[in-house]
Amino acid sequence: MVHAEIERLDRLSSLLDSKYRIPGTPIRFGWDTIAGLVPVIGDVATLGPSVYLIYRAHALGARKRTIGRMLVNSGLDFTIGAVPLLGDVFDLVFKANNRNFALLRAELGRETKMAQS
Rounded CA gap, 36 and 95, in Å? Predict the structure, then answer.
């Protein structure tokens, strides 16, 4: 069950940050970047799925420290992402949801190692 949840969250973070590639380049983007082209409204719309990822990380037992880092990532993405043009470039580079999923995966890996000890 946890494995299925991790797969869903991985798909969500990829959909938001890296689902598509600009042909002929290594540049990847997702719906967070696309929606971010609409100032403020797009950033508000993609905040919901970002918060959901953090909520599920908490439900899966992530430490407060990890949740705090995830909140900072999403907060930066929302705040800087709301700035026209600069925010669009920032969304292409920063990829807060992929970062947050990587934090969650590392956290769950840490817990697995501790349980095996």
Answer: 12
